[in-house]
């Protein structure tokens, strides 16, 4: 091996060693894909209360509407039916969004798709979204 070839190979090898950590970690699974406790709205004792008359949650006045409260996505699925689940994708912790046209929850980062119950329909997400219990109390939703 001549001097030019040696330096060429050394440069390429060094570059690969420098870039390898970034390439290997760019699409790896998050170490903690689960969301934190419910937050937003009024949070007392692990229960989040959403005031449906608030302008922040105006989208929940119509079926198919959705809104976020902290790291929770709340979706109105029927006349007086709501679901709440983590808005944090279990693959890379991106924020998911609801599509009322096909009734699915989608992650814009890597294409994961979840059902309205939070189960994975299409990966790379490894786990379902964490779901919460929703109770209607007058004009408030209680999420726990």
Describe the structure in your own words.
By secondary structure, this protein is of the alpha+beta class. The chain has a single domain (30-143), classed as Rieske Iron-sulfur Protein (3-layer Sandwich), CATH 2.102.10.10. Helices cover 16% and strands 32% of the residues. It is built from 1 helix and 12 strands. The chain has one helix spanning 3-25, and strands spanning 42-44, 47-51, 66-69, 72-78, 81-86, 97-99, 104-106, 113-114, 120-122, 131-132, 134-137, 140-143. The strands form 3 sheets. The chain has a 4-stranded antiparallel β-sheet, with no helix packed on it. Strands 3-4-5-10 form a 4-stranded antiparallel β-sheet, with no helix packed on it. Strand 7 (104-106) and strand 8 form a beta hairpin. The protein is elongated and about 80 Å long. Residues 16-40 have low confidence and may be disordered.
Keywords:
144 residues; alpha+beta; Rieske Iron-sulfur Protein; 4-stranded antiparallel β-sheet; 16% helix
- Classify the helix fraction into a percent range: 10-25%
Total individual domains: 1
Side-by-side strand order of the widest sheet: 1-2-12-11
Order of helices and strands: HEEEEEEEEEEEE
What's the CATH class label? Answer: Mainly Beta
Low-pLDDT runs: 16-40
What is the CATH T-level topology? Answer: Rieske Iron-sulfur Protein
Radius of gyration: 22 Å
Structural class: alpha+beta
> Which percent range describes the beta-strand content?
25-35%
CATH superfamily: Rieske [2Fe-2S] iron-sulphur domain
Helical segment count: 1
Strands, total number: 12
**Average of per-residue pLDDT values:** 78
CATH architecture: 3-layer Sandwich
What would you call the shape?
A: elongated
User: End-to-end distance, in Å?
Assistant: 68 Å
| Main sheet: strands, sense, barrel | 4 strands, antiparallel
